[in-house]
Write a structure and sequence with these properties.
This protein folds into two domains: 49 residues, no CATH class; 110 residues, no CATH class. The radius of gyration is 20 Å and the shape is elongated. It is built from six helices and three strands. Strand 1, helix 5 and strand 2 form a beta-alpha-beta unit. Helix 1 packs across helix 2 and helix 4 runs parallel beside helix 5. A three-stranded mixed sheet has the order 2-1-3. By secondary structure, the chain is mainly α. Helices cover 46% and strands 8% of the residues.
Length: 177
């Protein structure tokens, strides 16, 4: 949903000038929010397919809401210190990732790649002793795993993965940074 929001927000910046250009040129380019939203949805689906990713939704029933509220109130990771609470979306990301970790079996390993150090701290606190890695430095995965796996796109470097990406690794693969 975050990626969809980002893309829709970027579109909002160009919609008004596009409509003004249509009027100025007396053209109808058939630009509408509905068409753009459909194109954004299609683009996101294409990216998910290309990278062989699946979206995992957070199960709100499995969230420890009192603990999440406490962490928010005391500004504990993934929440930021300051006058206002910041970090709810990061907290949902952490909850979703921890649910993924709970679903792992065998030798599967989950990897969370995030630029946000507070996200890594929060996940590592909750998952210590399990086969996961949460890192804000993608190249740190090389030293942690040596070699790791991506069955579909081994040629993609980890730098190309977006913040908040969760990888489930089930067999040895190579990540290049």
């Amino acid at each position: 949903m975050e990626r969809e929001y980002q893309m829709r927000n970027a579109f909002r910046m160009v919609l008004k000038p596009t409509l003004q250009a249509e009027r100025l040129l007396g053209e109808n380019w058939n630009v509408s929010q509905e068409r753009i939203h459909a194109a954004i949805d299609a683009q996101i689906q294409a990216q998910l397919t290309e990278l062989d990713l699946r979206v995992m939704r957070c199960d709100p029933v499995r969230v420890d809401w009192p603990e999440l509220t406490r962490r928010s109130a005391f500004r504990l990771p993934p929440f930021q210190h300051g006058e206002t609470e910041k970090g709810f979306r990061d907290a949902i990301l952490c909850e979703t990732f921890c649910q993924l970790v709970d679903s792992l079996s065998g030798k599967a390993t989950a990897v969370l790649v995030s630029k946000d150090g507070l996200v890594g701290t929060a996940v590592n606190e909750r998952t210590s002793g399990t086969r996961i890695v949460a890192t804000s430095k993608p190249c740190a995965m090389k030293s942690t795993f040596g070699s790791v796996t991506s069955t579909r796109r081994p040629q993609r470097s980890l730098k190309q993965w977006r913040q908040g990406c969760c990888l489930t690794l089930t067999s040895p693969t190579r990540l290049r940074c």
